[in-house]
């Protein structure tokens, strides 16, 4: 087979439009390796295409094992197998030996799925029994509807060079007949193959180019602000948005090569060359789009060149051209504009320059620029940031049932997926919450005060040694040791004295878990949780997780054996977190919702939500809560104390007021500490300026009207 490469725009116009009948065989053969970011943007593409093609909402991030996702990946993961090599390079041999380039189990899945959907739609979704508003609008439904139409839609294109009406009418008059079931199956699979990779690639490159050109980001944002609503009709008229998309596809076309095969001898323009029938022709779109003959500054990202385009119409062919132009290009462009359709201000692309900037500085800059409500993006998630106190009250309390979940995070094989913080807000979460809420009541916390007071005295004694020498100390290190001792004692009933015993097993393993560096496991698990599950990434040190697993089980076994009410007096019983969880098994009291926040939910709503169900905590659940107690308690405690000491050192007048208040207290019991107003004021002000969590996350489980924002 002869192969020629043609990159002359005038010749391409003739080949793809005027002389289309010479080139009817379009080779739909596509090989492409996904780079990392495409793999993650691909999760979004998977959801959109699944919904638009088959009307199925798969949520591939949350449901990586959904049958549609698994089978789509089998088809999309076209590796260099024997079947694909033979079918691509030696198609005649492939037909002869029956080579299979695609996974046939996946093909059969889509075959059965399409047939099932078509049967259900034809049975139920007819105009007599269903209103137009209830009818599906996915690709399968549109193919079904096409059977009922005898209208000639002609040639639909958004390319710069449109064919003349006469030629398209002759070519594209709708014939009689309908699509067969097998043809619908084929188009559905093709919709996936052609749409998934092109969409994820285009989004990836757009994100990259905009991150390298912040001035283009700003121009795009300024244009989007002028649009009152992001409907399809208005989006197509946003000139700069479309210019960004076109320029992205010019520099990074969806198909690096376009293919045609001529069916008869073809004279190639005025070159004097005649191409024999059966010749395989390629067009290098990458080279064509960067040819200085057609483009000024061809390697530069300049969306402005598309405001008043002057290039040859066939020097830009990201989807092909002529009658065999990719029919999915309108879909891709509409999908590519998704980020602009939410009507929320904010950066409309991932700003990679912000990755290394502190989170609080990024958020403060965004709020100053966009207001208290703004949208932003990670590699795999679209996020809306809300800093309006009235709206937050509704989200966190009144509408908790709509916002019950935290952000998805892959936890590896650790038991942390059974902890309250990382669990979805389902019935199992409610069960654990109702069991654990009594553990944090004032009475239970009061019982721990003796341990905290003892460790506090030891901490003050340690600091007094440095007071005598007058040397500067790293206060975070010492406060961290204090926090380690308090958490170890209150969680597990173990007195470690971490300053004197820095190599205590509990201290060493706690530090392994708490020292969450930017490792591959933590990055993948946090930014790309679906990928983390797929490859089995471990965000935490598993030897440390196993240590706390064994420690918790050992303590529970010992307590259940020895610390029972018959053989031990109340005074001798442990009062740590593990013991309180063990004791919770024996209580059937409904403690409701226990909170120390300023705004309490109303009694009626909390009783309905937090009635204690029957059941107890499993061993794994106790292990998870113990580790979570360490993770959530250690860093927040040490950070809060460190900041409080710092702020007081900068404000000696506040130190004096606090000192004067403390002098009035004859003993520091739990009951008296909670009534020291200025002490609590100092703590609250510290947490206002230096909150324990720089970002709080919630995920809504249904569409949510955001107050009166529209």
Question: How would you describe this protein?
Answer:
Its main location: endoplasmic reticulum. Cytochromes P450 are a group of heme-thiolate monooxygenases. They oxidize a variety of structurally unrelated compounds, including steroids, fatty acids, and xenobiotics. This is Cytochrome P450. Its cofactor is heme. GO terms for molecular function: heme binding; iron ion binding; oxidoreductase activity, acting on paired donors, with incorporation or reduction of molecular oxygen; steroid hydroxylase activity. There is one protein chain. The chain is built from 30 helices and seven strands. The chain is mainly alpha-helical and 710 residues long. It has two domains: 3-340, Cytochrome p450 (Orthogonal Bundle); 415-643, Orthogonal Bundle (Cytochrome p450), CATH 1.10.630. It has a three-stranded mixed β-sheet with strand order 1-5-2. It has a two-stranded antiparallel sheet with strand order 3-4. A hairpin with a 4-residue loop joins β6 and β7 (382-386). α28 (652-663) packs antiparallel against α30. The radius of gyration is 32 Å and the shape is elongated. The model is unreliable at 1-35, 127-134, 149-175, 331-339 and 587-613 (pLDDT under 50).
Characteristics of this structure?
710 residues; 30 helices; Cytochrome p450; monooxygenase; 2 domains; 51% helix; mainly alpha; disordered N terminus
């Amino acid at each position: 087979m002869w192969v020629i490469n043609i990159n002359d725009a005038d010749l391409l116009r003739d080949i793809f439009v005027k002389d289309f009948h010479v080139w009817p065989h379009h080779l739909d053969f596509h090989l492409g390796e996904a780079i990392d970011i495409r793999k993650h943007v691909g999760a979004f593409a998977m959801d959109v295409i699944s919904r638009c093609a088959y009307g199925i909402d798969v949520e591939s991030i949350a449901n990586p094992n959904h049958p549609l996702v698994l089978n789509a990946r089998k088809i999309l993961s076209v590796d260099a197998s024997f079947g694909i090599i033979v079918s691509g390079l030696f198609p005649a041999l492939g037909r002869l030996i029956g080579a299979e380039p695609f996974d046939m189990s996946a093909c059969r899945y889509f075959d059965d799925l399409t047939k099932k959907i078509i049967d259900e739609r034809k049975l139920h979704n007819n105009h007599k029994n269903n209103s137009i508003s209830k009818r599906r609008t996915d690709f399968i439904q549109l193919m079904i509807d096409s059977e009922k139409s005898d209208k000639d839609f002609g040639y639909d294109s958004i390319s710069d060079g449109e064919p003349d009406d006469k030629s398209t009418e002759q070519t594209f008059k709708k014939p009689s007949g309908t699509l067969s079931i097998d043809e619908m199956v084929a188009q559905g699979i093709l919709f996936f193959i052609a749409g998934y990779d092109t969409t994820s690639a285009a989004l990836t490159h757009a994100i990259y180019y905009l991150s390298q050109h912040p001035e283009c980001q700003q121009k795009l944002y300024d244009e989007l602000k002028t649009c009152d609503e992001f409907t399809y009709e208005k989006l197509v008229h946003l000139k700069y948005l479309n210019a960004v998309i076109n320029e992205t596809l010019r520099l990074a076309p969806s198909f690096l090569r376009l293919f045609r095969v001529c069916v008869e001898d073809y004279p190639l323009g005025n070159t004097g060359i005649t191409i024999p029938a059966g010749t395989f022709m390629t067009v290098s779109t990458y080279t064509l789009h960067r040819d200085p003959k057609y483009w000024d500054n061809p390697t530069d990202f300049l969306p402005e060149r598309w405001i008043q385009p002057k290039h040859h119409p066939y020097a830009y062919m990201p989807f092909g051209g002529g009658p065999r132009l990719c029919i999915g290009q309108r879909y891709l462009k509409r999908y590519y504009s998704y980020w602009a359709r939410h009507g929320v201000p904010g950066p409309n692309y991932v700003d990679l320059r912000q990755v290394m900037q502190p989170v609080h500085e990024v958020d403060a800059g965004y709020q100053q620029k966009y207001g208290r409500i703004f949208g932003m993006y990670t590699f795999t998630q679209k996020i809306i940031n809300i800093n309006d106190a009235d709206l937050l009250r509704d989200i966190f309390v009144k509408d908790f049932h709509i916002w019950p979940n935290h952000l998805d995070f892959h936890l590896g094989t650790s038991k942390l997926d059974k902890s309250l913080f990382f669990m979805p807000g389902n019935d199992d979460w409610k069960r654990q919450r109702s069991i654990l809420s009594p553990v944090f009541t004032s009475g239970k916390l009061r019982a721990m005060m003796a341990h905290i007071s003892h460790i506090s005295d030891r901490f003050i004694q340690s600091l007094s040694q440095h007071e005598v020498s007058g040397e500067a100390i790293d206060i975070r290190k010492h406060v961290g040791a204090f926090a380690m001792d308090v958490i170890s004692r209150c969680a597990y009933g173990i007195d470690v004295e971490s300053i004197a015993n820095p190599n205590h097993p509990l201290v060493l393993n706690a530090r392994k878990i708490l020292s969450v560096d930017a490792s591959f496991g933590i990055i993948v698990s946090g930014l790309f949780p679906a990928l983390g599950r797929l490859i089995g990434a471990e965000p935490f040190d598993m030897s440390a997780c196993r240590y706390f697993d064994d420690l918790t089980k050992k303590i529970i076994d010992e307590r259940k054996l020895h610390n029972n009410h018959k053989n031990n007096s109340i005074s001798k019983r442990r009062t740590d977190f593990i013991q309180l969880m063990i004791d919770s098994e024996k209580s059937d009291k409904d403690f409701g919702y226990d909170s120390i926040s300023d705004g309490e939910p109303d009694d009626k709503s909390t009783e309905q939500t937090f009635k204690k169900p029957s059941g107890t905590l499993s061993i794994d659940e106790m292990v998870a809560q113990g580790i979570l107690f360490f993770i959530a308690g250690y860093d927040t405690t040490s950070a809060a104390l460190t900041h409080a000491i710092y702020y007081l050192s900068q404000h000696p007048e506040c130190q004096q007021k606090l000192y004067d208040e403390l002098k009035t207290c004859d003993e520091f019991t739990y009951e008296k500490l909670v009534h020291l107003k200025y002490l609590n004021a100092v703590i609250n002000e510290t947490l206002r300026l230096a909150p324990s969590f720089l970002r709080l996350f919630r995920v809504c489980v249904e569409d949510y009207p955001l107050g009166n924002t529209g």
